[in-house]
Amino acid sequence: MDERRAMIEAIALAGDAMPHPNPRVGAIVLDAAGEPVGRGYHDHGPGHPHAEVRALEDAGSRAAGGTLVTTMEPCAHDGRTPPCTAAIIGAGISRVVVGAEDPDERVAGRGFAALRAAGVEVAAGLEREAVEAMDPGYFHHRRTGRPRVTLKGAITLDGQAAAADGSARWISGEDARRDAHRLRAHSDAVMVGAGTVLADDPALTVRLPEFARVQPRPVVVAGRRPLPPEAAVFGRHPIVLAPEPVDLPGEIVVLPGNGGVDLAAALGCLGSAGIVDLMVEGGPTLAGALLRAGLVDRGVFYVAGMLGAGTGRPGIAGTFATLADAIPLEITGVERIGNDVRIEFTPGGS
Ligand SMILES: NC(=O)c1ccc[n+]([C@@H]2O[C@H](COP(=O)([O-])OP(=O)(O)OC[C@H]3O[C@@H](n4cnc5c(N)ncnc54)[C@H](OP(=O)(O)O)[C@@H]3O)[C@@H](O)[C@H]2O)c1
Predict the structure, then answer these.
(1) What is the DSSP-derived secondary structure letter of residue 121?
(2) Which residue among 183, 263, 285 is best mutated to probe the pocket of ligand 1, counting the most ligand atoms within 8 A of its Cβ?
(3) For ligand 1, which residues put their CB under 6 angstroms from it?
(4) What count of Cα atoms within 13 Å lies in the side-chain half-sphere of residue 59?
């Protein structure tokens, strides 16, 4: 098997794992003749064996003199598991092929240095883009200290997030809602604003059995209005970000800022708590504040086969005063889902 094919297989191995806040990593051991003899991926997060160690265990003595193909730079530090570099050197691997350098400050180049110092040949950058695309949240989190923020919205074809009376269930159809649950399932946390808690009382759980293995942590952005402690989300020990001290169930973090909670500081705080992928599910006031502050990394909007045919509540709150204020987007995906259209975008495109 050639090294590129092995890398592609290693990426596929790690693809759906959720080891956050650790990265998704896949590894393949090729023996001295280039035959794949060991496979491993990192599945359960901190404290569980890393992909490289699993692949080496799988290969056993056949690893000696072989090549380890791994999506991520091996760690060289003692964490909750011993360093992978020591296992690689101990197994007698003579060449390591890496997809992406690990931006985590405890690794960042040290893994390569430890291997080279032991006489192991190292090649880096094979399929780097595909490796980073498999876990964009991890790379974003380690480079910025913040979670990667995905803003999800469901709007009518004429851009309304709710009717004038606040009713919004359901604007998008069943298939789109199922897709949104899949997004939730791939997030470490799901955030809503106070207005959404008051209007919809969401539990923010993943309710599809095939996706409900790990529930994302709920996050509430509280404001000045009192919130009912019996709301469904407070039964799930949420992180409550508030502009002033509040008496609510959950982990309360007070972060005063302009217009309520300081959202940039809030994301830093969630990043420090190990939240790598954050999904924001509204509502329009929180969505507008995050977008205008440049804190949204990706948008997923479901544009429904439905017209408000009048003015209800806009998808994004705030005033669109002049065209120069518009936020340019790069549209990265368009897909029809049932009777809705899913549009994925990155803010900041030209
Ligand atoms: N279609 C959809 O995708 C969708 C999704 C979610 C919700 N909705 C609908 O949207 C409506 C609720 O939206 P909403 O805009 O009123 O509520 P929201 O965006 O969920 O919450 C906004 C509230 O959060 C608090 N807050 C604290 N700091 C903030 C900050 N820095 N920036 C922004 N907000 C901050 C404020 O509460 P205080 O006012 O108490 O100070 C603010 O009014 C409901 O009708 C709901 O059904 C629709």
Answers:
(1) E
(2) 285
(3) 153-154, 161-162, 166, 168, 171, 192-196, 199-200, 221, 223-225, 243, 259-261, 263, 281-286, 289, 313, 317
(4) 33
Unique residue bearing structure tokens 């094979």: 126
Is the pLDDT reported for residue 141 higher than 60? Answer: yes
Query: Which of 165, 181, 191, 196 should be mutated for ligand 1, with most atoms under 8 A from CB?
Result: 196
Strand partners for 253: 241
Say how many Å lie between the CA of residue 114 and the centre of ligand 1: 50
As to burial, measured by CB atoms within 10 angstroms (0-12 exposed, 13-18 middle, 19+ buried), residue 319 is exposed
Q: Contact 1/14 with Cβ under 8 angstroms?
A: no
What is the pairing mode between strands 239-242 and 251-254? parallel
- Tens digits of residue pLDDT in 176-216: 999 999 999 889 999 999 999 999 999 999 887 777 667 89
Question: Considering only CA atoms, which of 242, 208, 214, 239 is closest in space to residue 226?
Answer: 242
Distance (Å, whole) CA 140 – CA 23: 11
